[in-house]
Fold this protein.
Amino acid sequence: MLLLPISFIVLAFILDTPSNILKGILEIIVSPDILLTDYIKVGGIGATLINSAILTLVNIYIIWKLKININGPIISAIFTIMGFAFFGKNIFNVWPVYVGGYLYSKYQKTHFKNVMLIVMFTTALSPLVNELAYGLNLPIPTGLVLGVFVGILVGFIMPPLSAHMVRVHDGYNLYNIGFTAGLIGTIIMSIMRSYGFATNSKMILSSEYDMFFKIFFAIFFLILIVLGFMFNNKSFKGYKRLIWFTGRLITDFTQLTGFGLTLINMGLMGLIGILYVIITGGVINGPVIGGLLTLVGFSSFGKHPKNSIPILIGVLIGSVLITKEVNPTILVITGLFGTTIAPISGTYGYLAGILAGFVHLSVVMNVGYLHGGINLYNNGFSGGIVATILVPIIDAFKKED
Amino acid sequence: MKHEIKRISKILDELITFCFLHGTNNMNISLENHEDYFKIHLESDNIDCNDVRVQQLKELLNYPRQSEVEEYYWELAGECDSDTELTLVGMMVDKAEVNFDGTSLSITLYRNK
């Protein structure tokens, strides 16, 4: 868990100067972060790597302090934060959400540990803090207070809401908080638009570190496979059993198959992710790194090649047939994040998975408007809608046993 | 914990679904509400012991209690009629005793308050 953030820190100081890093971090902090804002473009490579490393290490420290076991959901949450720290989560905008979660735990007289997992994922709505603070042309002190207040409010309401929303799609959408945050974001954005405040979607993307990150992450994913191989008594034994699971929530590979096989699966899925980027002709930038790391994180908690590849194929088929022009980065991240609905192919077979991926591409390109880009887990929102509608339909065609 | 009664009901729902999915014809369930803990006891006949999930029952129900996972996912328990969430049930209880006698199954779960 520490390997990647520590290597980010080392890389940051190799690739960039300390003064540039400091300047870049300040630029990241004051930038509105709605989708898609690539921090590599906004603040530079060094600042982005440091931003990701700090967020990851602080979260690992909180987890350690709260004595939370490292399991599939926690690994997923850490990798998700690490990835999204390349395009939307930063060392300023996530903390109001934590304060909100903490206040909720105090209000309900429960331990903060109990809501920590939800709070980590709730940082999906962090851009809301920056958008209100810096994006609406409000006086900065007013915007800051409003942004922090709304961030705290979101952190407070998310624990009960996210637990409830998981029933809507029955666990077939792995990014459940993306679905919940999408609905909350839709309400907030509707209110904002009603009073004349609007956000404009962005497409701030970098491309200069494509080959560097392809090599860097390929090496990291290979290391995961080698480590997993060592932990699993120098074998891949049991992997066939891992891909037998449907992946529907909750499928924690760390507990069901052990850490060794989980690491092997994470590394393998990462390599498949890079291969997908190459096949689609995309470049690795901030959002794509977010997609890769989230894919790898959730490969400890439901995703594996058998249930994820059909989704990737479905998205690719959709991109060929669609008449609307699809930005290459959008296509890449839709595939990588679209594996949120991998449990559909895991449960109902690869044809259902291809269909789900195909539908997901069209839905994901339209739901962003609803929340105005303030929900970073746009694919989780779309995946929730697709799973909620598609699963009962597929089930209707399934014969009774 | 908030919704404690509903959480207990969902654990029961999950156990009932599991037994139905694995061939039971007869189930007896008892629930005790003690000062410090809940005790759920279930006896079921005619369980298909060849099924991989039945063989894993003891392991699945004995996962360490994980309140942070429970807080997020507890509402999933008992929601699906074709799949089971025994891992989740394992994370929602502190101790599980599972015994087989031929095709008869006995499960006792303890959940601390």
